[in-house]
Amino acid sequence: MTVGILRRCCIKLGKVRYYSRESSSNSTVHTISITDPTFRLPDRSTILSGIQPTGTFHLGNYFGAIKSWHDLNNLVKKSEGNSSLYFFVADLHSLTVPQDYQMLQKQRLEAYASIIACGIDPQLSTIYYQSCIPEITSIQWVLSCFSSMGYLNRMTQWKSKANLKDNANVSDENALGKVKLGLFGYPVLMASDVLTFRATHVPVGQDQSQHLELTREVAQSFNKSVGSKYFNDPHTLLTPTKKILSLKNPLKKMSKSDKEPLSKIFITDSANEITKKFNKATTDSIEGKLTFDLENRPGVSNLISILAAVKNKSIEQIVIDVEDFSKKELKEAVAEAVINELEEPAKKYKELISNPEYLQKLSDLGTEKARIVANRTLKDVMRLVGMSSY
Ligand code: AMP
Fold it and tell me: Which residues cross the membrane (predicted)?
């Protein structure tokens, strides 16, 4: 991320408080402060975010992404809705790495069901599969003509997904052979996801932040070339939960691909499974008060982070609450809080996944609503690049 001079300030927009970090360039990154009870969105916001269909969500997906979608969904509901919400299953993004396509088909459905199970209201929000909106890939082509290879080369995700070092370069023979065009150009598809719906606010985890920088860059480059301020600069809304770590190896992040079943909690886990996994979570042998110290006490700190995320409290506040607990008591407290938090999503998910016809109806509705907007943008974009007969 190219956030240069960090100007940390707190802006109150109506009842909204954003913790804003602004660079000397025109990029704007906000951290959603859901711990602030007065948090509210500006009027006429368009919020958009997507998630890849890697199957049922785990606690990292839940706190690192979906919970903030849910909170934004509720904010828009409360504000009596002159803002729009778009949430999607980023299935085309999945094709950037090898897939078992039968499995992918199943996981798309699971991801769609998980979004709704986690409290996103399909009547209020437009929820769709990215692959059902062909306008996105048409707009992507146009945007790719405004995307610098040098900028894409600096992105880190294609390197990590192709198992290359952070300093890898697309002009290296090794990288050229390993990296497919789709993986390298992934951020342009993401730019199209955002710009197709003219999103004003994009909630993402830290890992996607640099792709939004690129989105703003592409939008400005397009605007400059066509002599219009057609695309606005979408704001990055960073979720407050940075990283949920593996319960077994807290030096790694919690990940679906981790082979150790005790390392992760799924939103569909039973109360017994959740209790068992937290009981077996790795902590440390340091005596005395519990402290938050990611470097020396990653296991304990991870449990504190999870509790802070569930309770919508700051880490500092949770440390005050639990510092005199034993580690066993901390694990019990976290397990109880997570069981409560996931009770409703788990129940709802089971109902939804056993009713694929209903899910199909909802996704048809999402596609219909999304395509109306996407088609309008596509026509505008084509007109601006000299294809008004389109
Ligand atoms: P994935 O597609 O599995 O990388 O996850 C989708 C999104 O979930 C990411 O962009 C993050 O915002 C969030 N996420 C995934 N794993 C974690 C984690 N361990 N901690 C926090 N957020 C996570």
Answer: none
